[in-house]
Amino acid sequence: MRLDIRFSSIPVEELWCEAVVIPVIKREQLLSGVIYKLDQKLERHLQGLYKEGFFTGAKCETILIPSEERIKAPRILLKGLGREDEINTDDLPLLIHEMGSIMSRLGVIDWGIHIPEEIDFNAINPDSINISILEMVAEYESVKTDSREDYIKIVFSLPERDISCLKDIKYIIYKSLIPHIQVSVI
Asked: Which pLDDT tens digit goes with each residue over 65-84?
C-alpha cells in the first residue's frame, strides 16, 4: 500500500480529488465560514438541508451529496461534530479513521478533509493520528480488489495558522509510518 499525505491551506472546495470531507459544527447558524462558502457554490443546497432538519451538524450525522460540478470534487461528505463545546481535539484521529473507512467502502482513494478552525491541529498527539491512519489503511486493504489501485491520497485542508507549525508533526508522522507502509508526507 502506498499512502500520500498532504497538508495544505488550499480551501477544500478547490481541491482536485474524488471526494471532500467537511466536518460540520452544530450551531444555530449552520452556515458560517467554509460551510457558507460551500453553500454559495452549491446554490444554497446545504441551507435547504439544514432548514428541513435533514442535516444539522449533530454529532455522528453523516450525509454524502453530489457536488454537481459546482466544486472540483464530485462528492461531498458532511460529518456532524456536534456543538462546539462537545468537540475535543482527541476526536480528530477517530474522525480520520471513520472517514477513511467510509471512503474505502465507497472506493474513493483520493480525498481531502477540511480541518475546522475550532480544532487546533497542532495540539493533537501525532501518535494518535498515526494510529488512525494505520487503521484507515487496514480498512482499505480489507476491501482491496484486483481492479483497485494500491494507492491512497489524503489532503488535509488546514487554516493558514496551522500550516506554519507542521514541520515537526509531518516528520513524526512520516517516521512512524514508514516502517509499516510506503508513505510520502508533504
From this structure: 999 999 999 999 999 988 88
Please, what are the domains in the chain? Answer: 2-185 (3.40.220.10)
> Measured between alpha carbons, how far is residue 167 from residues 12, 32, 47, 125, 159 in Å?
21, 29, 37, 14, 15
Prediction pTM value: 0.87
Sheet with 19-26, strands from edge to edge, namely 62-66, 75-83, 19-26, 110-114, 151-157, 2-8, 182-185
Q: How far is CA 97 from CA 46, 68, 94, 132, in A?
A: 25, 27, 5, 5
Can you read off the three cell numbers belonging to residue 13? Answer: 472546495
Cell of 176: 512512524
Tens of pLDDT, residue by residue over 154-171, are: 999 988 888 877 888 888
